[in-house]
Amino acid sequence: MNVPETCPAVDPTPSFLSASTDMSKILIVDDEQNTRLLFKKELTDDGYVVITASNGHEALTRFRSEHPDLVILDVKMPGMDGLDTMARMLSIDRHVPVILTSSYSYYRDNFLSWAASAYIEKSSDLTTVRSTIRDLLPSHRA
């Protein structure tokens, strides 16, 4: 049976499955397990592939192996802090967007944090995080 040229092709794959092949990958780095779990659950529910790391060294390993599209990085962590971790990540891939998070607003004034794509104070309400991710990922893909 011939299909007329004017008939649009129909993709038999449900939209939720075809969208999953182009999901953005986000690396969450935080030394607090509850924060990692919250971000992972909420962002996975939003359709992102989420990888986590509990410290700067683990984050760099995951960054190199997983090639995330975006990183959400806690500033204050034991050992290698978020600012040093971000500098090392950006030396590997200077185009990846990095969102710094902290409970301490004074880190925003640290000139090392200026290399980040965004700075957000920590909150259990992820509204600002979600909107920042949406703002940053399209420009990253372009």
**β-strand amount:** 15-25%
Second rung of CATH, namely the architecture: 3-Layer(aba) Sandwich
Q: Can you give the helix content as a percent range? A: 25-40%
- If you average the pLDDT, what whole number results? 82
Strand order in space, largest sheet: 2-1-3-4-5
Short summary:
The chain has 142 residues and is of the alpha/beta class. The chain has helices spanning 15-20, 33-45, 56-66, 82-92, 127-141; strands at 25-29, 49-53, 70-74, 98-102, 118-121.
Overview of the structural elements:
With 142 residues, the chain is an alpha/beta fold. It has a single domain, classed as Rossmann fold, CATH 3.40.50. Helix content is 39%, strand content 17%. The chain contains five helices and five strands, in the order H-E-H-E-H-E-H-E-E-H. It has helices spanning 15-20, 33-45, 56-66, 82-92, 127-141, and strands at residues 25-29, 49-53, 70-74, 98-102, 118-121. A five-stranded parallel sheet has the order 2-1-3-4-5, with helices on both faces. Strand 1 (25-29), helix 2 and strand 2 (49-53) form a beta-alpha-beta unit. The longest helix has 15 residues, at 127-141. The chain is globular.
Labels describing this entry:
five-stranded parallel sheet; 5 helices; globular; Rossmann fold; 17% strand; 5 strands; 142 residues; alpha/beta
Write the layout of secondary structure elements.
Blueprint: H1 15-20, E1 25-29, H2 33-45, E2 49-53, H3 56-66, E3 70-74, H4 82-92, E4 98-102, E5 118-121, H5 127-141
Parallel strand pairs: 1-2, 1-3, 3-4, 4-5
Helix pairs in contact: 3-4
